[in-house]
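Feature request, filed as a ticket because there's no other form

It would be nice if the structure record came with a short human-readable summary line next to the tokens. Right now we just get the raw output. Example of a typical job, pasted below so the devs can see what we mean:
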Amino acid sequence: MIYSIDHASFTVSDMAKTIIFYRDMFGMKVDWDSKNEGVLFCGPECDNITGCPGTEQRLVFMSLGTSRIEFVEFTPGGKPLNDHKTSDVGAAHVCFKTDDIQELYRKLIANGVKMHCAPQHVGFGWTMYFRDPDGIILEAAQDDPV
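Raw output as currently delivered:
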């Protein structure tokens, strides 16, 4: 039976750019990179798993604390996200917890990150949505003091 969630995954267009963004903005570290390990993800088995025949995938797992995200770059790539909304069916996001959302907001702005808005206070604390370089929706949240 299912007993836990191992990771979330996002498809990206440029792995080098993705690694730099998640490392520099959030302090995530690369745990495993199929390219560096010399592992190829292609062929009939991968075609069957992904439903994307004739592609090769580079997989990178990055972590922050005990949480991890898998990033996958397909060659050839698929279509880019085109201004999808958080209300679109199937839209997903990852939420990063912070102890200083205002400082994170300033850092994101200084680095040209596309923001939905400045941090907003909601029932449990502060939150904001923004986008990574591929337009993937991300969130940051800071709890109110107890």
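Something like this underneath would help us a lot:
The longest helix spans residues 15-26.
The CA atoms of residues 63 and 109 lie 23 Å apart.
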